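ok so i was messing around last nite and threw this chain in just to see what happens. nothing serious, just curious
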Amino acid sequence: MHGSSRVLVLNYDFSPISVCTVQRAFLLVFLEKAEMLADARGGLLHTVNSAWPMPAVIRLRRYINMPYKGVLLTRQNIFKRDNYTCQYCGTHKELTLDHVVPRSKNGKSSWSNLVTACKRCNARKGDYTPEAAGLRLRRRPARPSYLDFLRHNSGLFQEEWGPYLQSNRAIA
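result:
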């Protein structure tokens, strides 16, 4: 068994709610608190007397009311959202954060006002808006949904999760 293996946990309504260890997921299935929807291809858990399929996706057998699950606004999460790419020139080198509307002009530290920028573009932009500095954003900054963040940025994504992380099943 892979020590780094993770299992996608779905609520009763199939909405993704978390990622847990294989051991925890197996225990939930074994105690009949969850059902296994997909197994890790070829993965087996061995006991003294038997072998069990290793879970990749489980669904809880009853609905758990979850508070809104958002993505924390952190420097690292801004970089991840922007794919470690300057949002002005596209480079991946010497990255920092930029306030699209500068703080001196009442720009807030928010998902919609922070972008990844290289030091060169950030210095060129200075205390101006991108338009005033002759720069253009490659993409409008926005708060990622928990689902999008899990799908694209967690570093944990497994192939078996794909069908369960489609946007038509998302709970935005």
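not much to say yet. The two ends are 33 Å apart (CA to CA).
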